[in-house]
Specification:
Two copies of one chain form a homodimer.
Chain A (H helix, E strand, L loop, with lengths): L2 H15 L14 E10 H13 L6 E4 L23 E5 L2 E4 L12 E7 L2 H9 L5 H4 L6 E7 L9 E9 L1 H12 L10 E2 L26 E6 L2 H10 L4 E4 L5 E6 L6
Antiparallel strand pairs in A: 1-5, 1-10, 1-11, 2-5, 3-4, 3-10, 6-7, 7-9, 8-9
Chain lengths: 262, 262
């Protein structure tokens, strides 16, 4: 891990660990990879990993912990998964029961942590290429939609693909496809372009998650597989116990986004 | 050059050189790179090469000969540019004066040969990936359109970008963008997708060159920069003398299409 990534990542994780920061992480440790989090009992972990393996676009796994381990050494040298995320969600039987800033009090030795790639990484690459990302320019959340595209089921995990949408003029859409294709570990190339109804989206103005953004007449909506997909399939299974990050409050790693490019 | 490419290329060039084949080259020496041809007096060659450098998508140069030379050693070990193309077009002051199968009788020591990448190479890659290319499936010519997109002028050479169009369903369009982006020396990624009117194309059913193909309601038209662009800018200049290949009758090289992938 390059020095800059390690220094930036650790600085932010120490602030979060100390409890002095508990908000959304967008913009923190600029250039570092941020990750979605899913923490599951070991009994479900193998099926979930099989689900991710079969659905790499919505579920690109950056790291899987040893059962019970609180470290993710391939993502950061000094990381405690119980304290280093600004805000968590604790779920019991599918019900959100708590949104703590620390999960030491509910930690168990059979928990397996999954760090899953996040679109922040490829959006940074788009912005660096001078391509406007609409929801960033408007300061709102990306619009997300449940589609009619099924995921490949594995064990108890199944459900529809959720996509995020970013509108671009056609030449920028082509560039965006080329750029994001270089980042398979953070959702990679889009899954659809231009014809929302063909994937079961009736009204772009009414996303299932996030905020609507305008699409101009000379633009095409471009759809990427979304990290909300694994969260929604986990929610469907209603495990007796699991944890995730709170929306927008991601795990900050020491990896640099540029290192993910193939 | 791999053995298979050299053997296949030479076999076809010898047939063509002997005058026993004078037709379109599509499908010959499968897997070998075929090239568009432009042969210009040395006085125009530098400006044309500058034009190509400034417009690499419509004008991807595979090789430029020494002035007066009949060989292109980087494309094939045994190649005589005066005899090895099935059919040529000879132009004087912008008028087509002859379509011979051999240009030894009009050869001059000041001629510079340009071999320019051709979409056959990336179409082969699409077909190998299992993506249907409409005009190939229908056995007709690809539809081509003059656009409202200007090329970057250089010296006497200027004019609108010409594009070829292939329709795909959205997921295949994304794959086609990813695949063709790997082939910058044969036009590379598309220049436009989905909104023909935005680049000055009023009616997809009436191409400026080639044949119309149907575009289904669940498909998007995808547009690539086209090798007809350099031909049309040369035609505009009306040089006192120049030569090209006859449409569809390309130069068969020893290079393999797979070697062009970046």
């Amino acid at each position: 891990m390059p020095h800059i990534g390690r220094r930036q990542g650790l600085t932010e994780r120490l602030r979060i660990r100390a409890g002095t920061f508990a908000g959304p992480t967008a913009g923190l440790a600029a250039g570092n990879v941020q990750a979605n989090l899913a923490i599951l009992p070991a009994a479900l972990a193998h099926d979930f990993l099989r689900f991710a393996q079969a659905n790499p676009k919505p579920c690109p796994v950056l790291a899987v912990s040893e059962p019970g381990a609180t470290a993710l050494p391939t993502l950061a040298a000094d990381l405690d998964i119980r304290t280093d995320v600004p805000r968590y969600r604790v779920w019991r039987h599918g019900e959100l029961v708590e949104e703590p800033t620390d999960i030491r009090h509910v930690w168990r030795d059979d928990l397996v942590t999954f760090a899953i790639g996040c679109s922040f990484s490829f959006e940074e690459a788009l912005v660096e290429h001078g391509i406007e990302v609409r929801h960033i320019a408007r300061g709102c959340n990306v619009p997300m939609y449940r589609t009619s595209i099924p995921t490949v089921p594995a064990g108890a995990f199944f459900g529809p693909l959720v996509v995020s949408m970013r509108p671009f003029r056609p030449a920028d859409a082509i560039r965006a496809i080329q750029i994001t294709a270089r980042y398979p570990s953070v959702h990679g190339a889009p899954v659809h372009i231009g014809l929302p109804e063909a994937i079961g989206i009736r009204d772009l103005g009414r996303p299932d998650y996030g905020d609507a953004v305008p699409v101009a007449a000379d633009e095409l909506p471009v759809f990427w597989a979304c990290g909300v997909t694994p969260q929604s399939v986990i929610a469907q299974v209603k495990p007796e116990f699991c944890m995730t990050h709170a929306p927008g409050c991601m795990l900050i790693t020491d990896l640099r986004n540029s290192s993910l490019a193939v």
